# Entry
Amino acid sequence: MLEYRVEIALWAISGIIPFFMLNIWTNNNLNESINISDIMLSRYFLCAFFVRQFSVVWVVFSFEEDSLMGKVSPYLIQPLNPFFRYFAQHLAEQITRFPFALIIAFFFFIFNPESIWIPNLGILLLSIVSTFLSFLIQFLIQSIVACLCFWTEKASSIEKLLFIPTLFLSGLLAPVVSFPAYIKSWIYLTPFPYLIDFPANLLSGNETNIIGGLSMQILWIFLLFPLFKKIWSEGTKKYTAMGS
Amino acid sequence: MNLRKYLKVYKKFLHTSLASELEYKTNILIDLITAIFSLTGSIFLLSIFFQNNGYIGGWKFEQALIIQGIYTILNGITNTWFNPNLAEIVKHIREGTLDFVLLKPIDSQFFISLKKINPSGFLEIMLGFFLLFFCIRINQINLNLSFLTLSLITIGCSICILYSLWFFISTTTIWFVKTWNAIEVLRSFLYIGRFPLNSFSFSLRIFFSIFIPIAFITTIPSEVFLGLSQLWEILLEVIVAAVFLITSRKFWLFALNFYSSASS
# Structure
């Protein structure tokens, strides 16, 4: 992974959209209407950036490439589910991304010195746990989509479709608190706000329901995991080795 | 004579790549739904910004929709032409098949940037035009000849700038081989084009007009639609577009000197 330092640095930069959004929010005083101070909002978007950095998943693209090139066949013979391989790759890359994310946070604090804060240890641990759970949810969803490769070959376009609600509803571009009431009434039943909004609120010290959020995350994992198992076992039965 | 040859070659490109893309028909349908979702999502985001404010950076909601429309058209063009060809350039350079392109009796930049086409982007372009027509109605814009020529010129210039940016990054593949992440950076910056430039703070505005001219790409054409643009802005956009096109061409020719094939 250290081979691709520049790439990972670039990737870390490509995640800075939350900062642009923060700029729109504060520059137009939009936060007054949702009762969040400038400082809390800037912390929220910084945390959203961090959560996003450590929960990005791209397993569907790796799997699609491997399956089109016929690389999945040798993996299937091994006594380990190939998704463990991708899982390990993701974890390794998250660790390499950590220093770059810290550098970006450092620059953020230079420009916004008033928003520096130190979360207490318990909150920090809880938010690491919830970021990891968010990563697990996204990994499971994408793995389920990736398994559709067994049927359609180009599963990545389904993933691009699913990415749109993730982008707009997860809280990456605007905190879920600011959403209109007709969306807020059902959004907390979907997995989206638990992907970024919940961990970011937790870490930044904004108001959130800690127990409710964590239990919804765990609930979604328990719902998605059997689905993945099912689709994986159905899919491998359909598998026809391509390109070999 | 020369132009006719290129037109003829382009017709063949269109034919072959359309034929291969239409193999995946469900894919095109999914891409259409994605485009609609994506537009709905950004209008939703805009409506959040505007829910308690009448103006963002001096733009009303109806006016900001014009920017969305232009962004959608440009994004459709990116998905139709720039993105699929870029993927090819990276592949050519990694596998050393750029040799075959260079040997052909045709301009390499022409070949490499127009070879492929992804028809699902057309739907996005149409979606953008629908939104624009809707905006013309709700903003009560008079259609006249000077408005049409100016808007065509500015949108044309935006396309040139956008093309140059994409081509510039794909050219760097010759040195860096893998440029996917650089593309992601460009994409995330281009995302800013969905919002009026004036809604950002002064320092970001400067950054987005000088280093990455996103200001020129969507804001100036939208101002033309509203009749707010100054003549110097339009002239500046034409100059910037010309500079970008020429630089990207020069840069490609320069980069080719460093191309040292692969696995041959």
